Amino acid sequence: MTLSRRSVLKGGLGLAVSGAMPARADFSPRAVINDASRLNPTPVARHVALKADATDDVVGRIRKEIASAVAEGRRFAIGTARHSMGGQSIPKDGVAITLTGGHIDIDRAQMTYRVGAGMRWFEVIRALDAEGFSPAVMQSNSDFGVGSTFCVNSHGWPTCYGPFGTTVRSVQIVMADGELVECSRTKNAELFALAMGGYGLFGAIVDAELDMVPNALLEPSYVRMDPSRFADAFTKAVETDPMVRMAYGRLSVARESLFDEALLITYRAGASQSSPLPAVVDHGALTGFSRDVYRLQTGHEWAKKFRWFVEASVSPSIAGAATRNTLMDEPVANLASGDRTRTDILHEYFVPPDRFTDFVNLCRVVIPKAKAEFLNVTLRYVDADPVAVLAYAPQKRIAAVMSFSQEIGPEGEVDMMAMTETLIEGVKGLGGAFYLPYRLHAQRDQVRSIYPRTDEFVAAKRKFDPSLVFRNAMWDVYFS
Question: For 217-450, which CATH class?
């Protein structure tokens, strides 16, 4: 009998969520860790929490754990917040490290800062804010770890930048044999290009030197338009207006009027820059009433329409100036749902600007057919990445960051997988790419087609880590 991926998924996930356990057990259960999807409960042999401070020998402690994994013939993976959604930071039956804390040293002359990989972005923002500076690029949420951001080569919404890796001067990596290697564009450049967006498969990132910029007070501007105009307006604002420091877009998400309207939001440096600037504010944009409306979108089309009305018609009249750091200090918890029967799943696609309208039309055909609830799409400008081997933006792209709510269970997974595969295939036809740190729903030939240097990546992995010590679920599904 021929079994499809979906039939296996239905049966396997059905067993996994049944919670069946023997009435009596004469064994000690293994540690189980999960990620942000809540769909990847995975047993590990050992889960070690390493909280670093200025006096810690973090490198020595990580070397010890890697050596133990090697001696036991186990895989090894390191993470911080585990906001990936496909087990990219989970080593099944292996040694899992959760690294938090660390140091930060600011170099005003070079406009750089060196930071421990376990530092969260909200910690970095506060340290830089006190000195009048801001990260050049970071992930759009401040809960994530710095080392993890390098491993996924995330992007943000400050302009006019490529992915995070384009603002990284150097990193230090502990290799499988315990050697501490520093790499950059000029030193161990091959390893640098592989580890940037390499999902921890080449070693444990322990330290990074990054670009910073002056903090600034920014004022917002909102323009509502037809989606067919968005790509040109977006790229023109980012590329030709030097006063634009941050920018993003939104599209309407109600099923019957999907992507009928677009909103372009730009932030420009205000004419008055007080000294000192206001301290970073510890809150995000989606709090209280706004968050309640966001969560009400699941199962309520009226809530999607009402949220669009608030964002496109009300927000422009009440939004005020904010510092760059306050805008970047947005915790992902602001989007959290209390419904334990569902989970929020992210998709992300990178589309050539001249094919953006085709992407809009693709989504209009595919997304309304799915059972998953479409909650939000944020559009960002991503400049070209000439370095990373697994580059998702080899030329400039418009990124579409999409959030869906799906049921936890086999039917929800099958529905999400079908929609994801179809969207990836459509984006591939537009010359675009999909982002790797989410659910592992792409087919292998889609991965190799969209990431044409995949075979080079896999061969280099086997060269730098011949015993395959650094492995995770993504390696098993896409690369092994």
Answer: alpha beta
